């Protein structure tokens, strides 16, 4: 009886462990921001942007509704200055990045 309970418990643990270990959309979005945006933008709640004209991500929701950025990210973000590279994200990357930006509101 105890052996069956242990076997069942171990089976359940093995089945749920990959789901618990999988990164969330917010984590994937933060990783994307760290890899592609942090060179110029502050991507956290406290630091200053390395490039002074680059708005910190924590303030983007004050300028734009975060969900409104979805279309711009899909079509490609182009700015009026040469320092900002053009970015076009795929739908999964957009979802992840927007999920992360919402955690900074």
Task: Spell out the blueprint of helices and strands.
Elements (H helix, E strand, L loop, with lengths): L1 H20 L3 H12 L23 H4 L5 H7 L15 H13 L2
Helix pairs in contact: 2-5, 4-5
InterPro entries: Cyt_c-like_dom, Cyt_c-like_dom_sf, Cytochrome_c550/c551-like
Protein name: Cytochrome c
Keywords: Electron transport, Heme, Iron, Metal-binding, Signal, Transport
What does this structure look like?
This protein is an all-alpha fold and 105 residues long. 53% of the residues lie in helices and 0% in strands. It has five helices and no strands. α2 (25-36) packs across α5 and α4 (69-75) packs antiparallel against α5 (91-103). The chain starts with a helix and ends with a helix.
Helix content: 40-55%
Order of helices and strands: HHHHH
Structural class: mainly alpha
Number of helices: 5
Q: Note the main sheet.
A: none
Radius of gyration: 19 Å
Our estimate of the beta-strand percent is under 5%
Distance between the termini: 51 Å
Q: Please tell me the overall pLDDT.
A: 85
Q: Tell me which oligomeric state these chains represent.
A: single chain
**Can you tell me the overall shape?**
elongated
List low-pLDDT spans. Answer: none
Pfam families: Cytochrom_C (PF00034)
Protein name: Cytochrome c
Signal peptide: 1-21
Keywords: Electron transport, Heme, Iron, Metal-binding, Signal, Transport
Task: Describe the structure in brief.
53% of the residues lie in helices and 0% in strands. It is mainly alpha-helical and 105 residues long.
What brief labels describe this structure?
105 residues, mainly alpha, elongated, metal-binding, heme, Cytochrome c, iron, Cyt_c-like_dom
């Amino acid at each position: 009886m105890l052996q069956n309970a242990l076997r069942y418990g171990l089976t359940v643990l093995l089945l749920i462990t990959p789901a618990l270990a999988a990164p969330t959309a917010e984590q994937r979005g933060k990783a994307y921001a760290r890899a592609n945006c942090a060179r110029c933008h502050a991507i956290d709640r406290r630091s200053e942007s390395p490039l002074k004209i680059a708005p910190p991500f924590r303030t983007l929701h004050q300028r734009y509704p975060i969900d409104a950025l979805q279309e711009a990210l899909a079509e490609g973000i182009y700015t009026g200055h040469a320092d900002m590279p053009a970015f076009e994200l795929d739908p999964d990357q957009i979802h992840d990045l927007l999920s992360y930006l919402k955690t900074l509101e």
